[in-house]
Every structure is written in C-alpha cells, then in structure tokens.
Backbone:
C-alpha cells in the first residue's frame, strides 16, 4: 500500500498577498478548501484500499470521477500557491525565455494578459485558467479547466494556473471575478513561471 497526499506549506505567510488577497481569504482557501481536496483524495484512496482487501465490487466510475476531482484540486492548488508572490515581489511582465515566448506567440504581453483573463473569466461554473506548453508544437497554449479535472490536454505541462473558483475570492471581492483577476496580475510570480518553462526546455 502506498502513501497519501499532504497539504503543502505556503511559500509565504498568509498576510503576504494583501491587499490583493487578504490574510483571511488566503487562510480559508488554503486551510479549508485546499485541505478538503487533500482529505477527499485520501479518503477515496482508503476506500479503494478497503474494497480491494475484501474484493468489494464498488462503483469504479463514480469513485474515479471523485478521485480525479480531488487530486486535480490538490495538484492545481499546489501549483497556484507557488505561481503567486508576496505583494511587491511579483507582477509586472516576465522576462527571459518566458517573456520572449509570450511575445512571439501572442504578439505582446498585453494580448496574452487579455486572452488569459478572458479564459479565467469565462470558464464555465467553477474552474481554472492555465498557461501550458505544448512540446509537439513548441507553443504556449491557454487552457480552461472546468472544476478541477475536465478539458485538460494530457501531457501538456502547466506553467501557470489561476483559480477561478468563487472560494478563491468571495471574501475579498464578493462575486466580482473580474476585479479579483485584475488584482491577481499584481502578484504573479514570473520567476517561478519562467523556471517551469526553463525546466521543460532544458
Ligand atoms: Mn481554490
């Protein structure tokens, strides 16, 4: 029997993203919402372990669906925390290879920012926007991820994600997703996003 998932520590303090994301909002998002996916995934793994022991004929389809929702939630949140930076240390525009790549693909950073914001703003229901990289074409590609687990292209590496679930912003921005997204550009950790690209192209 293998291991279980654990909630990662944040790479900064709960108050460090303010005023863009408040301490209260970040604490609840990390300790309650992200934790719920970790707990959910582990409970489902335990359920699987038990069923295998007794050869119980469980509903595999619904279990796998729930498992992908929870594992997807855990993996995406773990990426999200790390592609944010404390206020004053993030935002602006990316440089280096990432900057060049976005410039080449989108014709300019502002165009990328607009397309990415549209993706995050219009994702159906709850979900995510992700900047990914396709190794087959050497092109960055924006994806919408519905809930945590649908519409993902397998094997595309994720460079950056933005959480568009209402639980990511309701305390600070009520239902104003656009205002939250605009604010978030101030705390994107471009160094981390660029590092993920470098790792991929190495
Ligand atoms: Mn979330």
Residues:
């Amino acid at each position: 029997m293998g291991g279980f998932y654990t909630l990662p520590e944040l790479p900064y303090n709960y108050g460090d993203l303010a005023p863009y994301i408040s301490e209260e909002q970040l604490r609840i998002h990390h300790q309650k919402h992200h934790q719920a996916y970790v707990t959910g995934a582990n409970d489902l793994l335990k359920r699987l372990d038990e069923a295998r022991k007794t050869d119980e004929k469980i509903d595999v389809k619904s279990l796998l669906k729930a498992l992908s929702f929870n594992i997807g939630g855990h993996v995406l949140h773990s990426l999200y925390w790390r592609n944010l930076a404390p206020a004053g240390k993030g935002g602006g525009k990316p440089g280096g290879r990432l900057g060049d790549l976005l410039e080449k693909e989108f014709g300019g950073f502002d165009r990328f920012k607009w397309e990415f914001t549209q993706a995050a703003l219009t994702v159906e229901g709850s979900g995510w926007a992700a900047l990914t990289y396709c190794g087959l074409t050497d092109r960055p590609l924006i994806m919408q991820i519905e809930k945590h687990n649908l519409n993902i292209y397998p094997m595309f590496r994720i460079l950056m994600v933005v959480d568009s679930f209402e639980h990511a912003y309701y305390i600070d921005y009520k239902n104003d997703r656009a205002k939250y997204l605009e604010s978030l550009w101030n705390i994107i950790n471009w160094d981390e996003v660029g590092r993920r690209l470098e790792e991929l192209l190495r």
Remarks:
- The pocket of manganese (II) ion is lined by residues 29, 33, 77, 163, 165, 167-168 (CB under 6 Å).
